Fold this protein.
Amino acid sequence: MAPPSPSYTKVTHSATYDGINPTQPGLSSAGKVVLITGASGGIGRATASSFAASGPRALILLGRRPDALAETANIVRARHAKVLIQTYEAELCDATSVRNAMNKVAVEFGGIDTVIHCAGVLAPVVPLLEADPATFLDGYKTTVVGSLVTAQAVVLANKKVSPGEDKPVTLVNLTTAGIIFPPFAGMGAYVSSKVAAVKILQSFAVENPQVRLHNVHPDSSKQLCLLSCQSQSNYRLPLMIVSITDIVLHGYLLFLTSI
Ligand SMILES: NC(=O)c1ccc[n+]([C@@H]2O[C@H](COP(=O)([O-])OP(=O)(O)OC[C@H]3O[C@@H](n4cnc5c(N)ncnc54)[C@H](OP(=O)(O)O)[C@@H]3O)[C@@H](O)[C@H]2O)c1
């Protein structure tokens, strides 16, 4: 079945527009502690820059490669010198390293308000007939277990500093529109892992109502970012397109809160 190529909007933007501009006062993240997984990579790095423009209290960057994390921090600091940035090396499949990092952040700042979960792995794009059962779960582990570990860690960290209070946290999970489209040949491993992660996070959010979960699709284009959202109880199709180099997640959130 061929995948659809629908047009979801009348207007297509290829750069950040006023409605989602992070410098808008209404989109300020002042006072918020924002943590980004996969901040050493493409979308995570772009997200860090955009969040910095909205003036968060602290920007916390997680990834495995310290040099790439430092590069993200340097890029952001060069444009937004006043933003407090911390970097943590953390392997998402290692719950201890992720919990240690988030606990430290929560203790220092009194909690974590927003997590943008950008870390992910594109599993080998091969027909399933050729998929290697011995390595099939490699990408799954980061996507599925890593998403669970991330969600657990932020809730546990917030509980640690605010026992008895379920501090609200916004969790934005980067997924793929492939989870709601007809199958794409060669993408079975990747898409099925993304479905599993979404289902786990949905269950997690039901069990922990202080978690406001958004599943977001960034398009495959390196220039354009096609967003879709899936609320906890129903599906919505792609909503808007913005420049991937100027991703404004809090703009997404403002929009998502209105649906
Ligand atoms: N780019 C696209 O076209 C596209 C389309 C649809 C969906 N997505 C989704 O959007 C998200 C970001 O994509 P991207 O293109 O920015 O990916 P990317 O450039 O490959 O970056 C992936 C990030 O994930 C981190 N990561 C991977 N495995 C990890 C692990 N086990 N523990 C900790 N961190 C880990 C990497 O950090 P280190 O290398 O430092 O470990 C890196 O920062 C992913 O979830 C992806 O599936 C992307």
Remarks:
- The chain is about 35% helix and 15% strand.
